[in-house]
Amino acid sequence: MTSLKAQEDIETKDTSAMVDIQNLVKKYGKFTAVDRVTFDVPKGEVFALLGPNGCGKTTILRMMMGLLKPTSGSILIDGGDIARNSVKVREKISYLPQHANFPENLTGKEILGFYCKLRRTRMDRLESIFSLKGMQDFLAKPVGEYSGGMQQRLALAITLLPQTDILILDEPTASLDPEAVYQFRHAVRELCGQGKTVILATHLLSESEAIADRVAIMHSGRMISLKPMKKMKEEILPTFKFSVTVGRMHERFRQIALENGALDIENGGREMVFSTGRPEDRLIIINALQNAGASIERFGTVEPPLEEVYMKILQERED
């Protein structure tokens, strides 16, 4: 039986859904990979499944694509039942698997050309949403010579080619360099602005925070929390820490940070790592340190391990 606290942690949207999943279960013998997962995703939303490897994210996406048969439960894609008419339903989806494989003897340009013909689209459409800048040199090379990051960028470009209603993306930014990650996020926002629906699986809190409207946290095959990203951020923000590195450390910098809202300061050479009670305190601390003569070389958020976030959510459900 689901507790009242657990029910409060699963917030659903009462709206016409592009994706509607009800009581989804996948078992392998006695092992339950996905356990009674329910969620819906409306048109134009970015929905993130967040969790570590083995928590059931990829299994859910593969069942949504009709690549795996659920043990029980239902999956509707824009009203169509994937179990009854998978070919027609898949026409509405563009899918990025966790590990994409391409013929190693073909060049990236040849592979892109093939998918353009397959999806009956033009390369210039891709250029309008996902820049090929920086890809031209390696597009002329055989895929067998690509690094992991190059292959991932090619796979992402292929996924963004067709004008489908839904994008299903499994760890889309794995191995990507910062520039490609930025381009990907920009492309997702633009596509959602056009009414496209995006469902992504990721193990990165930062990825969910950057683009997701709602996030479902998966743990051992179960969905332990489903909330708007804004609300999720407010709840897990205390678990995030902030890092500041200065050119030369002085003891007074630690005291200044404490006086301006820093908590639990950890010193390591020229770096201070601390938490704050409010997000705005971080900028106040940065300004106070600069005013005290600190030469700040870099600063940024230190993302907590997913295990810490899980423990916080699980403890709240038990309280």
Descriptive overview:
There is one protein chain. This protein has 319 residues and is an alpha/beta fold. It folds into two domains: 4-235, P-loop containing nucleotide triphosphate hydrolases (Rossmann fold, 3-Layer(aba) Sandwich), CATH 3.40.50.300; 241-302, 2-Layer Sandwich (Alpha-Beta Plaits). Helix content is 37%, strand content 29%. The chain has 13 helices and 14 strands. The strands form three sheets. A six-stranded mixed beta sheet has the order 6-7-8-3-9-10, with helices on both faces. Strands 2-1-4-5 form a four-stranded antiparallel beta sheet. Strand 7 (166-170), helix 8 and strand 8 (197-202) form a beta-alpha-beta unit. The chain is globular. The relative contact order is 0.14.
Mind sketching the topology for me?
Elements: H1 4-9, E1 17-28, E2 31-42, E3 46-50, H2 57-64, E4 72-77, E5 80-81, H3 86-90, E6 93-96, H4 108-118, H5 123-129, H6 136-139, H7 148-160, E7 166-170, H8 178-193, E8 197-202, H9 205-211, E9 214-219, E10 222-228, H10 229-236, E11 241-246, H11 251-259, E12 262-268, E13 271-276, H12 280-291, E14 296-302, H13 306-318
